[in-house]
## 1
Amino acid sequence: MERVVLLRSLSCTTACRRAFPSRPKLFARHLSSLNKHVQRTNRSFSLRNRGCPRFILAPHVLLRRSFSLTPQAVATPSSKPTPQETSRTSDVAEKLGFERVSEEWVPECKANAVLYRHKKTGAQVMSVSNDDENKVFGIVFRTPPKDSTGIPHILEHSVLCGSRKYPLKEPFVELLKGSLHTFLNAFTYPDRTCYPVASTNNKDFYNLVDVYLDAVFFPKCVEDFQTFQQEGWHYELNDPAEEISYKGVVFNEMKGVYSQPDNILSRISQQALFPDNTYGVDSGGDPRVIPKLTFEEFKEFHRKYYHPSNAKIWFYGDDDPDERFRILSAFLDQFDASSAADESKIDRQRLFSDPVRVVEKYPAGDAGDLKKRHMVCLNWLLSDEPFDLETELTFGFLDHLMLGTPASPLRRILLESGLGDAIVGGGIDDELLQPQFSIGLKGVSEDDVQKVEELIMNTLNKLADEGFDEEAVEASMNTIEFSLRENNTGSFPRGLSLMLRSMGKWIYDMDPFEPLKYEKPLEALKARISKEGSKAVFSPVLKKYILDNPHRVAIEMQPDPEKASKEEAEEKEMLQKVKACMTEEDLAELAQATQELRIKQETPDPPEALKCVPSLSLQDIPKKPIHVPTEIGEINGVKVLKHDLFTNDVLYAEAVFDMSSLKPELIPLVPLFCQSLLEMGTKDMDFIQLNQLIGRKTGGISVYPFTSSIRGKDEPCSHMIVRGKAMAGRVEDLFDLMNTVLQQVQLTDQQRFKQFVSQSKARMENRLRGSGHGIAASRMDAKLNVAGWISEQMGGISYLEFLQSLEKQVDQEWESISSSLEEIRRSLLSKEGSLINLTADGKILSSTEKHVARFLDLLPREKATANVSWNGLLSPGHECIVIPTQVNYVGKAANLYENGYQLNGSAYVISKYIGNTWLWDRVRVSGGAYGGFCDFDTHSGVFSYLSYRDPNLLKTIDVYDRTADFLREIELDEDCLTKAIIGTIGDVDAYQLPDAKGYSSLLRHLLGVTEEERQKRREEILSTSVKDFREFAEAVDAVRHKGVVVAVASADDVTTAHSERSGFFEVKKVL
Ligand SMILES: [Zn+2]
């Protein structure tokens, strides 16, 4: 339910993000859960960085804080403020009506944190000061729903649609377009709604804060029924002769959520665990219940809960703390105290005295063996009250031990059992008032459901009785400590991950400082483990909270190929009844209202209104691209890139191997080859020992393929990247282990390989349902260029089909598969054509050289060359992938370079603008899709349009086709143009932690993007004119005339489309 930034696509890191879809797990398995969250976020945005506005996973799933040992802002050294500084701040705050409640120095994030209370309203403010330039603000309200109408979620969307000071359609979109934000979004949790922003630029930061505060306290939506209709739900009737349909952004978003089996499972689990409190309903909204919501209830919910008395406000970073209170008091002083904080209190769920069992059906396709597609999950409500910090830490640790890596026993035993394809349930979840634990399998045969439940219970019992290997405990401890030390939150601001941690307690009126300070309890836990042994620490916890706990819910989900169409039929029937009850007058009125809403949605805001959204000016923008220090040298004849950056004693290393001499038929095996390297054993070590060794000595190793087009070249860029990280003292171990993984691992473990195939298949099927836009995009790419074709072989529909047939072959043809894996190794692994990339402080870089030299010496000198040419492309026709879904994903794309367009930086500005205006307005706002966006891959020249959770099909393509007309007629004043340019620079200059800077620089090197080119593009971006927009119309017209269409859609919608345009699509059924 987040709103997620659209289209970060056009930055120079396009190709980097493009690598995500096919990269197996990356560091996630070696990181704590918050980082898992970050990874997951990335993965969901993944395909070519396309985000989708406001997204998908239930935030409590998404924002798991669990292994609650996160941020320590160590990479930004900071000194304690002097006493004078602190007291000066509190003077200003006190003058402005805030009282200081408590203050603490938090060494874990080198920050001074002060908790204030706004005296008049009781609003609570946490003001955290350190010298992190990536400043964060957030305001959070407790918003417990009483039903599944989705009020909190619809409100979360709606308050961002215009406010008192910013009376335009969507100030949020204006900020997306024209600010330098490093984070801009909103999340709905089951019990709270959270509005965070971040920026490294002071002026920009305060602009964002002001827009957000005005939005939450004074939104237009509480007076504007049309916003409620647009974001929530409404009846749509274009012509009284036609059928009525439901429309609404949240309505369609949730239909998408309810089409995904994994989401259905986690929702049912939560509701069954909490039948008696607010978590027993869906704050996101059940599409069958959303239409029961009235505008009156909606307004009342806002009045009651969006009040300072019910607010928790967070500021973090290196800005002037006084300024924070000046901004806040201007808003808060306008309110009196209310009883909201009492009314929003979350009741606890009392523990059951007996376990419960729930059986539900989920919508499935009719392809394949239905009997083998059951899902089983065991869930526990761990406690009738929140955990104390010590128990929380212990449980987080235990969770990592049981499930954190492929070698972890609970995960491994479940997968090795062969009873299912992939794990469901995410282990511990302590984001809500009471902690939960869940684990299960999907792809289970009907007859094995009971066996899975028994296996889970037996394994847990065994772990409680026997304890864990000391090596495993040591590996988990090192992984956790490493991730704390590194504090790598990826693209997620550090201050925001701290805020979410603190909020996990604060929102329930517990101590907000406590979650920030884990150092001592962690030391204590370590000391206990070394003194008493790990069994004495973990077994009692496992027994008390899981094994002896009767509050257990077993969920079984059965595939039902009829369910999707049944639900669709029910909805139709419902709407027909509604229509039957209407008089002719009513119908005319509804048609009129539909028309009026559409006109309102499609009419742009007047320029005066747009001007009220504060923005920077071009003078505030640095003229040069972000510089990443790069020294190119050579070790033993291999090119080495070194980036001297402060990394707090961590070395990040990438070894890159050329893939271009691989036989084309082996390409689809590459992702499985990469997984095998990390998850099979060597002659001397089984894979568990190898994984534990990696966990004990390093911060993690990952291996994945990377593919992209290179501008101006026919041959694609195609590599395998091995990525690793370690503390400076462990660099030798890191390179030894990278060598072990690459050269010593035996690719002969048939049983493990079989599991990889099933897991990958399950993952691909999940992507197809949840990220159909990504699948469509990769399919279009595969029709347009070779790099796209290669990627699709390793991560698209072709890959899924490959996995489906491979699953059947593993038993009969293992010898030949195993030797193909060896052949891949021989084709990739050699000094020739390889490259090393290193990121760390200068001193570490120098001391690393000898280890790199040894690593390279051990590689084969030359590769086994084969004469291969990769010129595969998929057939160029329009295609529709049919899956069981209630919403569609629609794409259209063409290669602009092949149609004569020459790259200019203005294309970045224009594509972003098309996405944020034309497509946003037509595909999302009036079309009712959850998202509509475009992407220009500047490396290949492919320009593509995509929609996300879209109720339409052909209609969306028509919108795409009219983009050129939109550009030809465009009127842009200076202000709008400036905002468009600044927003684009914000994307290009996206905030990166040091490891990401080094990595982006590597990708630019591989893709031949020089510093001169970056400077040139930046100048072109900064000097973009309206004329460029109009000229770009010619370029995008190529998509209209020559573009290829790929949709992922429901069978019904394809039939309807074909009744309008017969034979338009070639139809392909995969699920
Ligand atoms: Zn949403």
Note: The two ends are 26 Å apart (CA to CA).
## 2
Amino acid sequence: MATEAAKLINVFQPSLGQQELEAVARVFESNWTGRGKITTEFEQRFADHLDAPADRVRSVSCCTEGLFQGIELLGIGRGDEVVLPTISFVGMGNAVAAHGATPVFCDVDERTLNATAETIEARLSERTKAVMVLHYGGLPCEMDEIVELVDSRGLALIEDSACSVSSTYKGRACGTFGDVGVWSFDSMKTLVTGDGGMMHLRDPELAQRAEEALYLGLQTTSGVSSNAERRWWEFEIGTFGRRAIVNDITSAIGLVQLERLPSFIERSREIHAQYDRGLAGIDGLLTPPAVPAEASSTHYFYWLQTAPEKRDELALFLRERGIYTTFRYYPLHLVRHYGSDASLPVAERAALSTLCIPIHQAMTDDDVSQVVDAVRQFYGVV
Ligand SMILES: Cc1ncc(COP(=O)(O)O)c(C=O)c1O
């Protein structure tokens, strides 16, 4: 007799259902699945969500592509350095290195795992052209200090906001502080469209260039062809752009997810608070630092910090009980292909002691209790 498979608790999990299916069905019925009205609406609604002008927000095929586009749009290339936290998504480092520039990895705060003005400043040189930051697990970086630093040095700022779709700092959406901000809607994010992303470009002229670069360089404003009325197949390009656009199937899912987003964040916030209560006061175990009063978090990660010799053991102990965990993000300065010789002790220690445990809106209270009980059991606190 087949036994019922034990339930596994995922670290991240999308919530996609009937509403998204119906939205996709409507796109099928319209006979137009490419980039069209639904995508324009998704961009407008996402701009409203950010409280940003609609002409600064552009959909993009994925966040990694947005990072690559950002580097290109800012004219970063050979001879330039870009400072970024070593605890970053690999696409950030790749975007810099693939354009011939040098990624210069900086250390992070030991508790937030965010880069700070201080850790960034320690790695600036006369070749630095830009700084990239990531809001770790949705917890905003200290943006006042970082913006002041980059402005005082005349540097560009790129924000990877993939973890922070609903995070704010002093009332302003994370991702809108920099020259370029990028979001991801891949299958493991809070808002999921399958694959996809958004870009925010602070300067309208840069936003216009992004629009063209994302779609083959086709010129959208500056006179396509003087014969457009008679010969609509003629065109001009302003740059050798790629095709990194989003279609209406993806955007239809995104529109539904955007409506549901506040409920996702609310549920993640509750889970975060349940973990805080259930895991407080365990000797040798740290829970994430509190979200500062002037900020709000997406609560995309819940990270535990243990003694380094305990971390892998805890991960295995939880996995044997059907609870998946991970560590985001393995320090890039330790990835050989980047050829970095940096020594970044805080990040190196964090990489051995930090574990991201499950947190997503589909978790039930029972799931949360199961995780709390298992962690407490591991520490012999029952
Ligand atoms: C912080 C961060 N940035 C960027 C990305 C890349 O997003 P995408 O999968 O949309 O390219 C990810 C994906 O995991 C991420 O976690």
Note: The pocket of pyridoxal-5'-phosphate is lined by residues 62-64, 89, 91, 134, 160, 162-163, 184, 186, 197 (CB under 6 Å).
